[in-house]
Design brief:
By secondary structure, this protein is of the alpha+beta class. It has helices spanning 2-13, 15-19, 42-54, 59-70, 72-76, 89-110, 115-140, 157-171, 189-194, 212-216, 228-236, 269-281, 307-310, and strands spanning 176-179, 203-205, 222-227, 240-250, 256-265, 284-290, 293-299, 302-304, 319-321, 327-332, 337-338, 341-346, 351-359, 367-374, 381-385, 392-393, 395-402, 412-418. The strands form 4 sheets. The protein has a 6-stranded antiparallel β-sheet with strand order 6-7-10-17-13-14, with no helix packed on it. The protein has a 5-stranded mixed β-sheet with strand order 2-1-3-5-4. Strands 8-9-18-12-15 form a 5-stranded antiparallel β-sheet. Strand 1 (176-179), helix 9 and strand 2 (203-205) form a beta-alpha-beta unit. The model has no long low-confidence stretch (mean pLDDT 91).
Length: 419
């Protein structure tokens, strides 16, 4: 843990992360082709850093160095990322200003540069650079990336809620609309911002499968907003029929982003759902590289992501169970694994129960640890200690149960790591 913290901390101080394009930050937190800072200001920051170290005995310089060294600490506990590192802009800007001031002073002293000329020229250069960057963002920003979904730009709030949902509900008081929540974090928060309060009771977040009872009885007054990927899956889904598109909402690059649709339930939908329920809960077998071993893993079917995304100690990779609750994993390592504790980070699960069963080498009965976690924030990380052993385990079973959902919950898991 100390080594991981130090490696994250070093990344937070690395000029390469700050001044050159990187792949660590997700697409909506960066500008394509840019670093988090303007690379031309890197020499200024280094000059300012030199001045600060040179004058470290002076409190005014010393406090800037303290701020610089302190800023990466909170983010290093989790992982370096731009939202967690925004305050780093303050010491970097101050150091750059110190460096710039020192360079201008040197030019004025040695080249007898008129201070007014230097200040005016600097203003023109910085103003032009700012205007050019602004133009680039406004003109080219919408197509810097083609990933407009949950793990990308999360595009579509205005287009879906303000331009589509609100006008439709205003024109038809009997209409009910259901919007997919899968394309943004906290999609329901957009409702209060874009939809008038008197219309919000007619709007729900969800998927067509959540309204299957209404669709079986007719449900002709329900319209759904689905992402392009969800729409393609609905076309292939035998549970639904008579899918009609009423409106297409394009992404900035012109590709279809969302569809406003109506649909009906298939005549044999109950039989299809029962069959799918059994298939989604049927365990599958996989192979995983963990702690230098090739481990056989039996687990719940995964709907998105990979098994490796769960055990790679990277919170930015995630896997989701297809439709099952609990999400379970049975690990069969060739050689026993050291088990003193476990760290689990999930997607947003405000109330879940973690159960871990450990089989010591040669044991037929496990030592079982179970704990319920409530009132958790988004993407919570929890730790469970194995105080009663065993020190090593030849078989490990893990269950993550969503206490607020039924048997078909779609649990997201970011990391599972043993201590």
């Amino acid at each position: 843990k100390i080594w991981k913290f130090l490696s994250q901390y070093a990344c937070g101080l690395n000029p390469r992360y700050w001044y050159f394009p990187n792949t660590r930050d997700i697409s909506r937190h960066i500008m394509n082709g840019y670093g988090n800072g303007w690379w031309l200001t890197l020499p200024l920051m280094l000059a300012g850093l030199f001045q600060a170290i040179k004058n470290i005995r002076l409190p005014s310089y010393r406090i800037v160095l303290v701020a610089l060294l302190a800023c990466p600490v909170p983010a290093s506990v989790v992982a370096i990322g731009m939202p967690r590192m925004l305050w780093m802009a303050f010491p970097l800007a101050i150091l750059s200003a110190i460096g710039l001031s020192a360079i201008l002073q040197w030019l004025e002293d040695h080249l007898r540069l008129n201070p007014l000329w230097g200040a005016s020229g600097l203003f023109i250069v910085l103003a032009f650079a700012s205007a050019a960057m602004l133009r680039d963002a406004l003109v080219n920003g919408p197509t810097w990336t083609k990933d407009y979904g949950l793990y990308g730009m999360q595009y579509g709030a205005q287009q879906v809620f303000q331009d589509t949902v609100a006008p439709a509900l205003e024109q038809n008081p009997d209409l009910r609309m259901v919007v997919s929540p899968s394309w943004a974090n906290g999609t329901e928060q957009f409702v209060a911002f874009f939809v008038p309060k008197e219309l919000s009771p007619c709007l729900r977040m969800g998927q067509p499968i959540n309204y299957i009872d209404a669709l079986k009885t007719g449900g002709t007054n329900i319209l759904f907003v689905a992402t392009s990927a969800e729409y393609q899956k609905l076309l292939e889904d035998p549970k639904f029929t008579d899918i009609q598109v009423h409106k297409t909402l394009p992404y900035p690059n012109g590709e279809p982003g969302f569809y406003l649709i109506s649909l009906k339930a298939s005549a044999n939908i109950d039989q299809i759902i029962a069959t799918e329920f059994e298939e989604n809960r049927k365990p599958v077998e996989d192979i995983l590289e963990l702690n230098g071993q090739t481990i056989r893993v039996i687990h719940s079917p995964i709907g998105s992501g990979r098994l490796e995304d769960i055990f790679d100690n990277d919170p930015f990779t995630v896997a989701r169970v297809k439709r099952a609750n609990p999400f379970f994993f049975d690990l069969y390592p060739p050689a026993p694994i050291s088990t003193h504790g476990i760290v689990v980070q999930t997607g947003s699960l405000p109330d879940f129960t973690l159960t871990v069963s450990l089989y010591a080498p040669g044991a037929t009965e496990p030592v079982v640890y179970t704990k319920t976690f409530k009132g958790l924030p988004a993407d919570p990380q929890v730790t469970m200690r194995f105080a009663n052993g065993p020190e090593e385990s030849a078989l490990i079973t893990i269950e993550i149960k969503d206490n607020l959902s039924g048997d078909t919950s779609q649990i997201h898991v970011r990391t599972i790591q043993f201590e």
